[in-house]
Design goal:
Length: about 375
C-alpha cells in the first residue's frame, strides 16, 4: 500500500492526472515539503526499501515534478539491486533553478529541505543535478545523514573522483565485445559535458582504454572534430566557466547542440537531461553502442527502436551505477580505493550478466536488466513481514 503525505496544495505538487505508476514494488511513500517563508517546494519518493534504506540524490531544477522524481526513484531501486549494495531506491527534487540562486539562497533551501526529511530515516540523500558536495555538507550538518561529502568530512567527493564516469568506462570495456567494436581507437560522442560527461571522457580516453572523443555537447552547442578533441583542454575550459563552444583546434566544427544525433561514432554517451533520445530522433542516432550516463536519458520506445537497429543500449541503472556504489561505500565507512575496486568488480559483472542475458533471450538490455533486478528485489521483499 503506497502512502502519500501531502503538506501543500501548490499546483506543482499535484499528482499527475492519474496516479498510474504504482505497482507491487512501490512507491512506498511520496512526501511533499513546503515552506512558504523561504519558498521551498520539495518532493521525496521512497520507492522500495526492501533491500535496505533507500539511497538517491537530491535533484534541483525548476521543472522537476512528481512523475520525474518517481521515475528516478524507481531507476534507483533497480540500480541499487543490480549493484549489489544494501540499499533500496529513492530520490528527491527541489523545485528551483540553481543557476539563478545566490549561494546564500541555495543554502537556505537545502538546509530547510534537510530539516523536512529528517524523520524520513529510510532515505539517505546524495548529490544529483543541481546539488553537490557542498549541498551534502549542509544536509549532513542538519540531519547527520548524506553521502557524496567532501574528503574533509570523511567523504568520497563524487564530482572530484568521477565515480560515475569511471563506471561508464568499465562498462564500455565489457560492452565493446557485444557491440563488435574495439575500445582502442573507438570514437565517442558525449552529450552533456558536466560532472558525469567530462569524467567519462577522461576515463574512456585513458591510455588503458584508448578511445577518442570526437564530439561533445552542452547547452551552448556541439563541438566536433573527426580527428579527436583534446579532452583535458576541453575539461579545463569548462572548469574555467567557459562554454565548450569556445574550444578551438584545427579541424574543429561548432554545430547546433541538436546536431549530436547526426554525428557518426562508435559510442554515444548521453550524460545530461532525461528523455534526450526519443522516438523522434532515435532513427537518426548514428552509433553502435550507447552507454547511458544520465538517469532516464532515453525513452523505452526509443530504446526499442535502437535495439531493432542493432545498437547496443546499456540502460542507466546498469551503466551509471558507479556513483551510487561509491556513495554506499562512503556511507559504510569505506575509502576511495575500496569504492573504485567495488565499482570495477560490480560494473564488469553486471554489464556482462545483462548483455549476455539480452543476447540469449533476444530481449532489449533494459528488459534483461529489469528481469535481474526484479528477481533480486522480489527475493528481498519475500523476507519482509507481511502487514
Amino acid at each position: 500500500m503506497s502512502t502519500v503525505i501531502k503538506t501543500a496544495s501548490e499546483p506543482a505538487f499535484q499528482l499527475d492526472s492519474a496516479f498510474d505508476y504504482g505497482d507491487e514494488f512501490g512507491p512506498e511513500k511520496i512526501v511533499y515539503i513546503y515552506e512558504p517563508r523561504c519558498g521551498l517546494r520539495g518532493i521525496v519518493v521512497i520507492d522500495n526499501s526492501s533491500i535496505g534504506p533507500a539511497i538517491g540524490g537530491i535533484r534541483m531544477t525548476p521543472t522537476v515534478n512528481t512523475r520525474e522524481v518517481f521515475r528516478l526513484a524507481r531507476a534507483m531501486t533497480w540500480k541499487n539491486a543490480l549493484a549489489g549494495i544494501p540499499h533500496g531506491g529513492g530520490k528527491s527534487g527541489i523545485i528551483a533553478d540553481p543557476r539563478t540562486l545566490t549561494l546564500e539562497r541555495k543554502e537556505t533551501l537545502i538546509r530547510q529541505f534537510a530539516r523536512g526529511i529528517e524523520a524520513l530515516n529510510q532515505y539517505i540523500p546524495g548529490p544529483d543535478m543541481g546539488t553537490d558536495e557542498t549541498a551534502m555538507a549542509w544536509v549532513r550538518d542538519e540531519i547527520r545523514r548524506s553521502v557524496g561529502l567532501s574528503s574533509v568530512l570523511g567523504g568520497i567527493p563524487l564530482d572530484q573522483v568521477g565515480a560515475t564516469g569511471f563506471g561508464l568506462a568499465v562498462c564500455a570495456e565489457v560492452a565493446q565485445h557485444f557491440a563488435d567494436i574495439n575500445l582502442k581507437g573507438a570514437t565517442v560522442s558525449i552529450q552533456g559535458f558536466g560532472n558525469v560527461g567530462r569524467h567519462a571522457a577522461s576515463y574512456l580516453t585513458h591510455p588503458k582504454r584508448g578511445a577518442v572523443v570526437v564530439a561533445a555537447t552542452d547547452l551552448a552547442g556541439t563541438v566536433y572534430n573527426p580527428d579527436g578533441i583534446y579532452v583535458e583542454k576541453l575539461v579545463n575550459l569548462v572548469k574555467a566557466g567557459q562554454p565548450i563552444t569556445d574550444y578551438r583546434e584545427n579541424g574543429t566544427q561548432i554545430l547546433p547542440r541538436e546536431e549530436f544525433v547526426n554525428i557518426p561514432v562508435d559510442i554515444f554517451v548521453p550524460a545530461a537531461q532525461p528523455d534526450v533520445i526519443t522516438e523522434a530522433n532515435a532513427p537518426l542516432l548514428n552509433c553502435k553502442l550507447m552507454l547511458q550516463g544520465a538517469n532516464i536519458p532515453c525513452t523505452e520506445a526509443a530504446e526499442r527502436i535502437l535495439h531493432e537497429r542493432g545498437i547496443i543500449c546499456v540502460p542507466d541503472f546498469v551503466a551509471n551505477a558507479g556513483g551510487v556504489i561509491c556513495g554506499s561505500v562512503e556511507y559504510h565507512g569505506g575509502t576511495k580505493s575500496t569504492a573504485f575496486q567495488e565499482i570495477e568488480e560490480k560494473l564488469k559483472e553486471n554489464t556482462l550478466a545483462v548483455l549476455d542475458r539480452a543476447k540469449r533471450t533476444k530481449l532489449t538490455p533494459r528488459a534483461a536488466a529489469l528481469e535481474l533486478a526484479k528477481e533480486r528485489v522480489k527475493e528481498a521483499m519475500s523476507y519482509r513481514r507481511a502487514n
